[in-house]
Each structure stands twice: as structure tokens, then as C-alpha cells.
Automatic annotation (TrEMBL):
Cytidyltransferase-like domain sequence ranges: 439-534
The keyword Transferase belongs to this UniProt entry's keyword annotation: yes
Alphabetically ordered keywords of this record: ATP-binding, Carbohydrate metabolism, Kinase, Multifunctional enzyme, Nucleotide-binding, Nucleotidyltransferase, Transferase
Reaction(s) catalysed (UniProt annotation): D-glycero-beta-D-manno-heptose 1-phosphate + ATP + H(+) = ADP-D-glycero-beta-D-manno-heptose + diphosphate
Entry-linked Pfam families: CTP_transf_like (PF01467), PfkB (PF00294)
Region (Disordered): 218-268, 572-598
NCBIfam families for this protein: cyt_tran_rel, rfaE_dom_II
GO terms assigned for molecular function: ATP binding; kinase activity; nucleotidyltransferase activity; phosphotransferase activity, alcohol group as acceptor
Cited PROSITE patterns: PFKB_KINASES_1
Protein species of origin: Micromonospora rifamycinica
Name recorded for this polypeptide: D-glycero-beta-D-manno-heptose 1-phosphate adenylyltransferase
Pathway: Bacterial outer membrane biogenesis; LPS core biosynthesis
Length: 598
């Protein structure tokens, strides 16, 4: 985060004004069953691309905004919001296009209604496009000048309000080389093919839209479908909000517009290659995505998003794809093909307005600063999560993010060695910070490279790794009277020193079931070559909503094998009598090489 300071970021896209009106209501109107409202407070905030720029500035970056803004009262208020936030305002005045405004009326922090106004009905004229392109070019050079010639970062926010017509999109694609890191947040990602961004952050609905358009050939000639239609068709459900998709229905056209597919779902024809099947109402096949709106609420969106990350990367040309799942967190994937899941805390919808802008800003700054993908994903989720504590447009400030991180390398103020009684509260703290929890257990008697590789692989499955270690008495019951070789104090000290391990806890029982109940891990990991179904704890983990994964052992790397080799070596080379003359001059024995004793 230190390297975020004054990092040059150019934000371009649809800017709007958020207006919040807070009122009291003590009685109903006589003319109709409606509350009578008394206005108490009114606040305004930057919205859309403007709020993304505000979040970049609040997190310590140097944000510059280029966007068309109306020459009206709402535009003046938006300029004031940008000035207060320290955003470099390079917006383009459009006298004939109003500034989009979202007005919310609240009583007791409950949104009663939202009025949208100023959505431009007309596209930018040729003069407006020309002035916007000039502003983009000048802003890019301005940021290069203040950073000593370094290429700036670009963030594109396309919410379909007309700020980024085809000519502007073509210019950004043609000048992609002028920007080091490019982040894209667009309602219709297919419009940006060729940009090859560093990261895209679609919602689940936007990702679904892209997959369906890809299955239809991005406008290729219509192809017959098994339901008798001529092409895949996407339509918003009737109750879908006007400011962006929440869910999409994929049906057939003509005749199927807006309707869920009829007939059996989830059964592809023999010619289709099934990729995944995630619950009633949603099937993923080689031909695309089918969402049945009547049962879509039961769909596991995270599983679907994870199954299609590679395709989303291919269709967008992005290095990183982060599919945001609102209250369910996000699924993030990069070139290594390893999906990363982050979690969020469910909050009222009025608390989450603009949380996606905070996520986008933090993700962009982290990747621009060359953070690893797990770190960038964790910081982005944390930035979004800590902003949703109250009603209003979300802005994550640098100080708040640092406070949430607690100053510790792993993002918490908790020590690595913890007691069973502390574990509940510690895990709850991590979950509030948006982290997914991986849990494993074992004796870890003689720590060896197989253990290290196993724990590193386990840590890669989530944001936090908790290792439960059998006590000495528990090991004796499981392994025999001559085990453990190393006491539990030594075993947990070595485990806690590994960078891939976040917390270590000791348990006395023969089974970790009690700790699993307390931790409720997102992923439970065991070592072995058997399938997850044979893990004794699997039914419990799944009942608690988690996944079970097994990781294969490293050949010839086991505690028992090491102990056998030490004993064999001790038999071949009995110790000499004490004294200086008996000090070995030959190469170190196996025991000495691994730091062990017989």
C-alpha cells in the first residue's frame, strides 16, 4: 500500500451524481396508504466512474477523471464532490446532455423509492466525441509528465450511459500501449474485445451475458437450437433494475424472449461438452449457459463462475478475471488457473451502493503495484467489505484499510499460535474481513518437505490457513507409545514459522470434528491418494457448507520413512565414545542433515 501513494490513475467512463434524502415519517397520508415524509438531511456523492476515481484518491492514488458531464446543477454538484475528494477533474462539459442522477428517499435508513433522472437519450455528437478524445489524450500526457514519463494506469467504467461510444472505445483499444495497467468494469464486456485489459471485474450477470454472447458467436449468423429457435437470446427479467443487470435469462429467439427455457434443464445434447452442472435451473454446457429464472435462486453462482474463469479470460483477453458476487464475495482467477474465493458480509442493499467501485479501485492499485494475485484479491475484497457499514455511497479510505489490516503481515492482529477457546472469535474476525478459511489437521511430527509442499498447496485454496495439531497424548493413541518424536511445543513452533500457515491450534481429541464445528471451514484439506468421499470428516464439512479436498503425498517424503532411515543409520553407525577424538570428520548423517536426533 505504500507504493500506491500518488500512483497515476486515469479513470474514464460514465459519471453520475448520487443523491440521498433522509426523512422522518410518523403518520400516513389520508389521500393514500403512503407515509408522510419530513425531509431532515440531504447529501450528494460522486457515483459511477466518478466514485471509482474518488476511491482511488481516498486510497492514496492520484486520480484523474475524464467523463462527459452536463452543464447543469447536478453537474456543478458533481464537480464539487470531485474537488472535495482531491480528484483531478478533467471532465468534458456537455450543454445538451444532462448529468445522470440517482435520487434515493429514505425513512429510518430504509429506501422508500429511487428516482433516476438525466439518463442521456441521445449519444454524444461528433463534437462531443472529439472533445472527449482530446481530453483523454491530454490527460494521459499530463499523468506521464507528473510521474517522470512512466505509463499511467487506466480504469474504464462503462455502464451503458453513452459516455463511451464506439469511437472512444476504438481509440482506447488502439492506444492500449500507452497504459501500464488497464482495469475494465463494463456492463457489456463484448463491446471491449481487443482491449486486452489487465483485469476485468464483471458481476455474475455481466459474466453470464458475455458467455451467452460468446456461445452465439458474438453476432455470428444465427444457428439452429434444439428448442427450435434460431439463436441464443438474452433478456432482462421484468423486475430487473434499470441501472444494470442483476440476473439474466438466457432463452431462445424468436418466440422465447424473456422466458425461461422449457423442457428439461441441465441435460446437454450428445454434441455438447458438459463443463459443469450447478443445481436445478442452471446448466453449463459447451453451447453456453442456461438460467431458468423460476429456480435461479438456488444456483451456486460461485461454482459456476469458477468453472468458467478460463473462458472468461479467453473472451476478454484479460490477465485476471474477478467475478463479483455481491453478498457472496468474489471468484478471482489468473493465468495460473487457480481460482481464489473471497467472502463478504451480507448487508442491507442501501449500505452497498458503490462497494463495487471500492473493489475496483483497490484491485487496480494493487495490481498496478505488482502485488501477487492473492494479495490483490484480499485487499480488494477487504476494501469493499469495510465500506458497507452505513447507508450512503461507499468510499474506502486508506486509513480505514490500514486499520482493518491491523498492521500484521497476514492482515490480522492475532498471533499465529492460538487456543481452541480463541479460535471462534479469530475466525469470525477473518470472515468479517472477507477471507475464506482453509482448515487441515495432523500430527506433523517430523516436519519435512512433503509437509511444506502440502501446506503451501492447502494455503493456495483460500485466504487463510488454520492448522490443527494433535497433542502428544493424541499422537500416542494414534501412532503408538514411541511417538511423537518431537513434543507438541516444538511441532507447533515450526509450523507457525511457515509463511503459508496463518494460525496453529492444538487439540486433545483423536478427531478434529469439534474444531471443524467451530471453524466451519470453507475448504477442508487432507493428505492422501484417496477421493474426498472417503475422508471421515467429509459429511460434517459438507453439512456445514464447506468443500473437501485431498492432496497427494510427495513420494518418499513421510515422517515414518524419515524415522526409519534415522533408525537404520543409527544401527549401521553406533555412536562412538564421548570425547573430542570421537567428533565425526565424515559427511553429516541423515539425522544431522535434517536436524533430527535418534
Amino acid at each position: 500500500m505504500e507504493s500506491w501513494r500518488d500512483r497515476a490513475v486515469l479513470v474514464v467512463g460514465d459519471a453520475m451524481l448520487d443523491e440521498w434524502r433522509f426523512a422522518d415519517s410518523e403518520r400516513l397520508c389520508r389521500e393514500a396508504p403512503a407515509p408522510i415524509l419530513t425531509l431532515r438531511r440531504r447529501i450528494t456523492a460522486a457515483g459511477g466512474a466518478a466514485n471509482t476515481a474518488v476511491n482511488v484518491a481516498a486510497l492514496g492514488g492520484r486520480a484523474l477523471l475524464v467523463a462527459p458531464v452536463g452543464a447543469d446543477v447536478a453537474g456543478d454538484e458533481l464537480h464539487d464532490c470531485l474537488d472535495r475528494a482531491g480528484v483531478w477533474d478533467r471532465t468534458v462539459s456537455e450543454p445538451h446532455r444532462p448529468t445522470p442522477v440517482k435520487r434515493r428517499m429514505l425513512a429510518g435508513n430504509q429506501i422508500l423509492l429511487r428516482e433516476d433522472s438525466g439518463d442521456p437519450d441521445e449519444p454524444l455528437d461528433d463534437d462531443g466525441v472529439s472533445r472527449l478524445l482530446t481530453a483523454l489524450s491530454c490527460a494521459t500526457e499530463e499523468l506521464r509528465a507528473v510521474t517522470g514519463g512512466a505509463a499511467p494506469t487506466l480504469v474504464v467504467c462503462d455502464y451503458g450511459l453513452g459516455a463511451l461510444p464506439a469511437a472512444v472505445r476504438a481509440w482506447l483499444v488502439a492506444h492500449r500501449h500507452r497504459y501500464a495497467t488497464v482495469a475494465l468494469d463494463a456492463h457489456d464486456l463484448a463491446d471491449w474485445r481487443g482491449l486486452n485489459p489487465t483485469v476485468v471485474t464483471p458481476s455474475f450477470a455481466e459474466a453470464t451475458r458475455l458467455l451467452a454472447r460468446a456461445a452465439a458467436g458474438f453476432g455470428a449468423p444465427p444457428a439452429p437450437t434444439r428448442t427450435g429457435g434460431t439463436d441464443l437470446h438474452l433478456d432482462h427479467p421484468p423486475n430487473d433494475p434499470a441501472d444494470g443487470p442483476s440476473e439474466l435469462v438466457v432463452g431462445t429467439a424468436p418466440g422465447g424472449v424473456g422466458r425461461a427455457p422449457t423442457g428439461p434443464t441441465g441435460e446437454p445434447t450428445p454434441a455438447e461438452g458438459r463443463v459443469a452442472l450447478t443445481g436445478d435451473g442452471l446448466s453449463v454446457t459447451g453451447a453456453g449457459v442456461t438460467v431458468n429464472a423460476t429456480v435461479g435462486a438456488g444456483v451456486d453462482r460461485a461454482v459456476l463462475a469458477q468453472a468458467r474463469l478460463a473462458e472468461l479470460r479467453e473472451h476478454t483477453g484479460a490477465d485476471v478475471v474477478a467475478v463479483t458476487l455481491d453478498t457472496e464475495g468474489a471468484i478471482v482467477g489468473g493465468a495460473d488457473g487457480a481460482p481464489r474465493r473471497s467472502h463478504s458480509t451480507p448487508v442491507p442493499a442501501s449500505h452497498a451502493v458503490g462497494a463495487g467501485d471500492a473493489y475496483l479501485a483497490a484491485m487496480t492499485l494493487a495490481l498496478a503495484a505488482e502485488a501477487s494475485l492473492p494479495t490483490a484479491a484480499q485487499l480488494a475484497q477487504l476494501a469493499a467489505t469495510i465500506t458497507v457499514s452505513d447507508t450512503g455511497t461507499c468510499v474506502c479510505r486508506r486509513e480505514d484499510l490500514l486499520d482493518a489490516l491491523g498492521g500484521a503481515p497476514d492482515g490480522t492482529a492475532h498471533p499465529p499460535l492460538v487456543g481452541t477457546g480463541e479460535l471462534d472469535a479469530i475466525v469470525a474476525d477473518h470472515r468479517r474481513a472477507g477471507r475464506s478459511v482453509v482448515f487441515t489437521n495432523g500430527c506433523f511430527d517430523v516436519l519435512h518437505p512433503g509437509h511444506v509442499r502440502y501446506l503451501e498447496q492447502a494455503r493456495a485454496l483460500g485466504d487463510l490457513l488454520v492448522v490443527a495439531v494433535n497433542s502428544d497424548a493424541s499422537v500416542r493413541r494414534l501412532k503408538g507409545a514411541d511417538r511423537p518424536v518431537n513434543p507438541v511445543e516444538d511441532r507447533v513452533t515450526l509450523l507457525a514459522a511457515l509463511s503459508c500457515v496463518d494460525h496453529v491450534v492444538v487439540f486433545e481429541e483423536d478427531s478434529p470434528a469439534g474444531l471443524i464445528e467451530a471453524v466451519r471451514p470453507d475448504v477442508y484439506v487432507k493428505g492422501g491418494d484417496y477421493p474426498p468421499e472417503m475422508v471421515p470428516e467429509a459429511p460434517l464439512v459438507r453439512r456445514l457448507g464447506g468443500q473437501v479436498r485431498t492432496l497427494g503425498y510427495v513420494p518418499d517424503r513421510s515422517t515414518s520413512a524419515i524415522i526409519d532411515r534415522i533408525r537404520a543409520q543409527a544401527t549401521l553407525d553406533p555412536p562412538a565414545a564421548p570425547g573430542p577424538a570421537s567428533m565425526p570428520a565424515a559427511p553429516a548423517t541423515t539425522a544431522e542433515r535434517i536436524g533430527g536426533t535418534t
